[in-house]
Amino acid sequence: MAKVLEKSEVTATDGTSERVIDHPAWVELKGAVERLRGWQAADGSIDRAAADAPPQQQVATTVATITAAVAGLSPLLVHDADYHAALIRDLDAWVAGGCGVPDFLDSLLAFQPAAERVDGRQHLVVFPMYTQNGNPNRNFEAVVIRMVWPSWLAELEATRYDNPLFCGITFEDFTPGYDTNSAVLFPETVAVREVPSRFSWGAIFCDREAARFRRVTTSVVDLLGIGLPDEVRDLLADQQRCQDAFVLWDMVHDRTHSHGDLPFDPFMIKQRQPFWMYGLEELRCDLTAFRAAVDLARDAEQGTVARELLQTARDVQIAVLFDRMFRFPLTGSRVRNYDGLGGQLLFAYLHKHDAVRWTDNTLRIDWDLAVQTTTRLCDEIGALYRDGIDRPKLVHWLAGYDLVSAYLSPNPASRWAKGAEALDLDKLPRQLVDDVHPDEFPLSMFFEALGKKVKDVIASTEGITAQAA
């Protein structure tokens, strides 16, 4: 077994003095993980029945390269020494067990990036995992990340938006599962023998989110002839400002999943429900972040919080509006795309209330009215949730459908659009989800036309990082 130095043997470092990816061991590790990925089945095992299955000794040698590289890099990352030691044990156990379905629970529990959030700190992460919006298989991935935790964000988390599990991160380098649209690193994606009773961290790549926001929004602004205030143009030109906006947006969004008048916890319980309910939940969290940014900007202007926070608070509002309205509806497939649905709803709501208008082949935005109207939609979704506490599940789903369909036209083939009388109410609610049309709320003519013009731009953001923005 490769040896990881104990904490007492190494001088502590925050990982900023030497970049992990500049070390020769990273090149060795990355190459070995990429070889290993090519031999894995969807469940993470080595498929011995495959015609091109490698000999066990070849797999063992490749894993030994990985463990040696982890041991070589660990002295640069003393804060992760316990995790790296557990990782090496899990890798060795996987090989000793014949390379079946991986179980990396022990190393997952040892990885605790949120326990001590230090701005600029590097972490080397290796797990068999799927990447959300990326690779659906539990292949091995190696990724070097850097923590985003500036003092102003730490202060806001401590005083206003408590979220002790949240980690803002950026990419240093990664294996192919992250050369995709994935912008998260979540513990629930890791292959384990049993799901822990609770997770202790969740990480979001604010650099990727900022980079694709800038690229897509700049293209849409040019196509639609949107007149922008100088501060918006300056934001789109500034990767760091965008990253600051996204890390604050994400921190508030993430905590909102467990805050407010919740009829249930829609994601943690993993219950089956129509996709528009997930869309409303994601939009609720984004609009709560929007409202928090409005309040923070007001407080910064009044001097009750640091004046320096004013720009970031205003940037969050712009990012939520533009990313939600223009990138979300046109990204991903049309099959039960709940994020896309939330973006469609926000645009339609603003259009219905004259905050945005498409006339003379130009999109015009009433910025003050957009803020007021977005906040009003947040109120409507909040009222739906509050009333939902007293409703049966199916009635709540139908009320959510009514809210969405007041602004978006249902698919003409939809059974749900015909109301409760068109559904077989002898079925359990979860069975009625099968009656949801895959594209229950199709794109409007506006978005269909826009999608054709920006599809290549959106496709170009796959795997994007700050360096390519």
**Could you say how many structural domains there are in total?**
2
Element-level helix/strand string? HHHHEEHEEEHHHHHHEEHHHH
Strand order of the largest sheet: 1-2-3-5-4
Residue-averaged pLDDT, rounded?
Answer: 94
- Judged by helices, strands and strand pairing, the structural class is alpha+beta
Strand content: 5-15%
**Cα distance spanning the termini:** 41 Å
Radius of gyration computed on alpha carbons: 24 Å
Low-confidence region ranges: 4-13
- Total beta-strand segments: 7
Major beta sheet, specifics? 5 strands, mixed
Number of continuous helical runs: 15
What portion of residues is helical?
40-55%
* Apparent shape: globular
Write the layout of secondary structure elements.
Layout: H1 24-37, H2 56-73, H3 81-96, H4 105-110, E1 122-129, E2 139-148, H5 151-159, E3 166-174, E4 184-185, E5 202-205, H6 206-224, H7 230-236, H8 239-256, H9 275-302, H10 309-327, H11 338-352, E6 356-359, E7 362-365, H12 367-388, H13 393-405, H14 429-432, H15 445-459
Parallel strand pairs: 3-5
Antiparallel strand pairs: 1-2, 2-3, 4-5, 6-7
Helix pairs in contact: 1-2, 2-3, 6-8, 6-10, 6-15, 8-9, 8-10, 9-10, 9-11, 9-12, 10-11, 12-13
Features:
two-stranded antiparallel sheet, 7 strands, 48% helix, 469 residues, 2 domains, alpha+beta, 5-stranded mixed β-sheet, 15 helices
Quick recap of the structure?
It is built from 15 helices and seven strands. The chain is an alpha+beta fold and 469 residues long. It has two domains: 7-200, no CATH class; 209-468, no CATH class.
